[in-house]
């Protein structure tokens, strides 16, 4: 996994939290990364055990710690995908009693948040359209750097034909001149790195329940994470390197 991570230009994290049979909150961290040539890796990164509280602050601090452990810089992170649970979105997870003034303020905040979210949807839709069909996007509403590149790209009939004749990732991988359209290339890499759902997290927790069953509740957090990495990950271990790093037992 470490070898794959070094090749990531951008990555996205999928987060979810569930409680195992020992009442320990386990935070699943799944990563999806893309290399310069649009080679995508989506796999288990790590599992973090949360002992005590499980507020948004706890999740945030645990995530930062794990990202640092794997030398994953925040500037390469395209986004975080969660199931929308409060602990994944808030700094503090607690209930309070409200008076009428507080209630009015919350309604006002919700209205502003509602408008903000719909603005984000519109912006996200625009970004997706640039990625999927850069030849039909109106460049005038975009940043200057993207405008210049899109105007030039849309005048290129040869590339437009290749876009029509090939699968999207194949087009970007084999035919898109990254050196000429650097901003569009970076934009496409960001889009490819995004998760569409937390399905892999749900799949992970299903595997966790099978592994830490009623007959194996004595599994430590470390051993549980190790077993889940072996059973869940699609990445083949580098056995030659592992053997080389081990000290051989010489017979006397």
Strand content: 5-15%
Count structural domains.
1
User: How many angstroms separate the termini?
Assistant: 37 Å
The profile of the biggest β sheet is: 4 strands, mixed
What coarse outline follows from CA principal-axis ratios?
A: globular
Low-pLDDT regions: 91-100
Placed side by side, the strands forming the largest sheet appear as 3-2-1-4
Order of helices and strands: HEEEHEHHHHHHHHH
Helix content bin = 40-55%
Q: What structural class do the secondary elements suggest?
A: alpha+beta
Overall pLDDT score: 80
Counting DSSP E segments of at least 2 residues, the number of strands comes to 4
Structural Rg: 23 Å
Number of helices: 11
Describe the structure.
This protein has 252 residues and is an alpha+beta fold. It has one domain. Helix content is 50%, strand content 14%. It has eleven helices and four strands, in the order H-E-E-E-H-E-H-H-H-H-H-H-H-H-H. The protein has helices at 2-5, 56-69, 86-89, 100-132, 144-154, 157-165, 168-175, 182-192, 199-211, 221-232, 239-245, and strands spanning 10-19, 25-34, 40-50, 77-81. It has a four-stranded mixed β-sheet with strand order 3-2-1-4. Helix 9 (199-211) packs across helix 10 (221-232). The longest helix is centred in the middle third of the chain and has 33 residues, at 100-132.
